[in-house]
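Lab notebook, bench 4. The sequencing result for the construct came back, and we need a structural model before the next group meeting so we can plan mutations. Quick request posted to the team channel:

Model the 3D structure of this chain.
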Amino acid sequence: LARHSDADDIVVSATKGIEGRSQGAGFRLMSEILQELLPTERIGVLSGPNLAEEIADGHYTGTVVASPDPAVCETVRTVLRSETFRVYENHDVYGVELAGALKNIYAIVCGIAGGLSVGQNTVAMLVTRSLAEMSRFAVSLGANPFTFLGLAGVGDLLVTCTSPLSRNYQLGYR
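Done. Here's the predicted structure in token form:
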């Protein structure tokens, strides 16, 4: 992308992942990698309870765009919003991105629980403890704790940990 972009471009990552560094030197989030590789500083991230099949079918949902640049958030909101797709703004890039990446781990565990038919009480316990753990971890790294009470946190965690449409849930279940 670096060859095809310039400093005025807006780049939004919808990737949910963490890149490990060699010799235990921590990790980088996708927005950090984009900042390193692209000429633009106009970078945002997108996350939320967004099951692709339901969005394509026109079901109501919301998502969160996060960027330190308010103009990036406003542009993404304008471009993506529709009658059934609401876009909310957040400036906690780190929190939104960590929530999107971490919830996938817990969704696999909830899928395993579903495959073992452990019951809804157990799944509720797993989701609740997962929210507590991921938010404490992210806050220790500088994220805003309130980010985890919104769509990018509890909203995305709930749908990813309980829906048969969730790839990570299905991985654990199988």
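The CA atoms of residues 2 and 38 lie 5 Å apart.
Will bring this to the meeting.
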